[in-house]
UniProtKB/TrEMBL annotation, chain A:
Belongs to the ABC transporter superfamily. This is ABC transporter ATP-binding protein. InterPro entries: AAA+_ATPase, ABC_transporter-like_ATP-bd, ABC_transporter-like_CS, ABC_transporter_ATP-bind, P-loop_NTPase. PANTHER family: ALIPHATIC SULFONATES IMPORT ATP-BINDING PROTEIN SSUB, TAURINE IMPORT ATP-BINDING PROTEIN-RELATED. The keyword Transport applies. Residues 21-251 form the ABC transporter domain. Keywords: ATP-binding, Nucleotide-binding, Transport. GO terms for molecular function: ATP binding.
From TrEMBL, chain B:
This is ABC transporter permease. It comes from Mesorhizobium liriopis. Residues 73-257 form the ABC transmembrane type-1 domain. Belongs to the binding-protein-dependent transport system permease family. Keywords: Cell membrane, Membrane, Transmembrane, Transmembrane helix, Transport. It is a multi-pass membrane protein.
Length: 269, 266
């Protein structure tokens, strides 16, 4: 384990991680009345302030894991804990960014972001300033009054990210948040996300298909098997922070990590 | 990275020139219809059958001067509007309940559909017995014709609601009131508008049918009364007044629609 990760693990009481997922099974009902297992015996833990990515083949159950953590989907077996408590007892805000952008189609960009602040009970006086700040930060200036249908897919993703940040979650669940962005914007948004993360030290679970992105951002990368998914490898990213995406690309350790994850995925367990 | 910040394109202009042209062309169509109608009389179609625009206009003018026109219009408008409002107030919650309590809805569905398919016009005599020949029976007729529109449309709207949107707000633990006011009701707005659009016509039908069967005022009564005296001009005058009410109602709905559901225009 690397210095950064060790440090983070030390921060969190070793017996009580921020997020604990142990031997979890999830199944969806089939139209015929049966049940199809989607996640099987999945176990992992995320420490306080840790940034963890999940990668795995399409359909392996990554989004399903996030849905369980957010309380939207019940699991069949195993235990899911947040701060050592069950999901029903959890009082912390969980910010979930869906794979598909889910903005209010009738609301403007500013209103879509503002609703995050409203749901976080941020004081009325502070909301406008916060929204304005996020709009600048997400490079959406000039589009405040636009409706989602007047934006590009990548811009809608940024609005969704803005709503999430305005919500000031204690835990971030991000399901391919930058999937619709070009490489350059992706890197810029990743950098901003890291900035927010390092400022507040919240726990992040980040689902992505982009392995280089996972390595660039994360403390650890979890690799999932094909469906029914479970965690087959937990790879620590022992690269110093702050990380510069462009410099990292020239780093041999970076390339080794990316290779290691690729071969895990290729092995296909 | 500054090149990432695009400049915002201007939002589309309202297109005043186009709407002026539209108004002009519609007026043109109206004039053509009236001209054809007027000349039919001169070409030998008896005025007893079709009256004529000038006679109808004259009649409307007399009725307006005596104030009689407004008494009847107001009466019919009140009946239809009260029936429509009542149908909205009762139909929307029932529609929501139908989507919420799926099993109960399944039990009730054949009964609802049977009532919905029943020609409500056939209920008019019964309503007159139950609710008298005054305002109330007409309101109830309008109500019974429109309520299903609200119930079924709202139910349909809720069935097609974006689940992800609702789920997302659930993960943020949105309180019920906020969920309703920020997600569900705005989602339903286009369905409410659509119901209103259909409901205006239907509530007028309900009110007028009840008036035809038993009343002493209202446009339906005026039309019935004129027809009884073979006064075609009176019948047409009543129809024009009814059309004016319906057109006014549609205009209001169009306004409302523009204001609250512009997002669907995408
Ligand atoms: N609502 C549902 N009902 C039934 N099956 C579902 C449902 N949602 C997902 N599944 C199934 O569960 C499996 C896992 O889905 P999930 O969305 O978690 O995959 P994923 O790893 O996020 O994939 P991707 O990378 O493509 O987003 C898939 O095989 C999918 O068919
Ligand atoms: Mg997914």
């Amino acid at each position: 384990m690397n210095a950064v990760a060790r440090h983070l693990h030390h921060d969190a009481a070793p017996t009580k991680p921020k997020i604990g997922f142990e031997g979890v099974d999830v199944a969806y009902p089939t139209p015929e009345g049966g049940r199809i297992p989607v996640v099987s015996e999945a176990s992992f833990a995320v420490g306080k302030g840790e940034f963890v990515s999940i990668v795995g083949p399409s359909g392996c159950g990554k989004s399903t894991v996030l849905r369980v953590l957010s309380g939207l989907l019940a699991h069949e077996k195993g235990t899911v804990r947040i701060n050592g408590r069950s999901l029903e007892e959890n009082r912390e805000r969980i910010g979930f960014m869906f794979q598909r952008d889910t903005l209010l189609p009738w609301a403007s960009v500013a209103d879509n972001i503002r609703i995050g602040a409203e749901l976080a009970n941020i004081a009325h006086e502070r909301r406008d300033a916060r929204v304005a700040e996020l709009i600048g930060f997400l490079r959406l200036s000039g589009f405040e009054k636009h409706r989602p249908h007047q934006l590009s897919g990548g811009m809608r993703q940024r609005v969704a990210l803005g709503r999430l940040l305005a919500f000031e979650p204690h835990i971030y669940l991000l399901d391919e948040p930058f999937g619709a962005l070009d490489a350059q914007t992706k890197i810029a948004m990743g950098r901003e996300l890291l900035r927010v993360w390092s400022e507040y030290k919240r726990s992040v679970i980040f689902v992505t298909h982009d392995i280089e992105e996972a390595v660039t951002l994360s403390d650890r990368v979890l690799v999932m098997s094909p469906r029914p998914g479970h965690i087959v490898r937990d790879i620590a990213v022992d690269l110093p922070r702050p990380r510069d995406p462009k410099q990292l690309r020239k780093d041999a350790r970076f390339a080794d990590l990316v290779d290691a994850i690729w071969s895990e995925l290729d092995a296909g367990h | 990275m500054t090149d990432l910040a695009q400049t915002a394109p201007a939002l589309p202009a309202s297109g005043t020139r186009r709407s002026l042209k539209l108004a002009r062309d519609r007026l043109l169509v109206l004039v053509l219809i009236l001209a054809a109608w007027e000349s039919a009389g001169h070409l030998g179609v008896s005025e007893i059958w079709i009256s004529s625009p000038s006679a109808v206009g004259e009649r409307l003018w007399t009725l307006a001067l005596s104030g009689e026109l407004f008494v009847h219009m107001q009466r019919t408008l009140t009946e239809a509007a009260l029936g429509l409002a009542l149908a909205f107030a009762v139909g929307v919650p029932i529609g929501i309940a139908m989507a919420r309590y799926k099993y109960a809805n399944e039990v009730a569905e054949p009964f609802i559909m049977a009532l919905y398919s029943l020609p409500r016009v056939a209920l008019a005599p019964l309503f007159i017995i139950w609710f008298g020949i005054d305002l109330f029976s007409k309101v109830m007729m309008a109500f019974s014709t429109v309520i299903f529109i609200f119930m079924l449309n709202i139910h349909e709207g809720l069935k097609t609601i974006d689940r992800d949107l609702v789920d997302l707000f659930r993960t943020m633990r949105a309180p019920r009131a906020l969920m309703l006011s920020k997600v569900i009701l705005p989602w339903l707005a286009p369905w409410v508008i659509a119901s209103l659009r259909i409901g205006i016509g239907l509530s007028l039908i309900g009110a007028v049918v009840a008036e035809l069967i038993g009343s002493s005022a209202g446009l339906g009564w005026y039309i019935e009364n004129s027809a009884g005296r073979l006064d075609t001009t009176g019948v047409f005058a009543g129809l024009v007044a009814l059309t004016a009410i319906a057109a006014g109602g549609n205009l209001l709905v169009a306004r409302l629609e523009k204001r609250i559901s512009g997002w669907r225009a995408a």
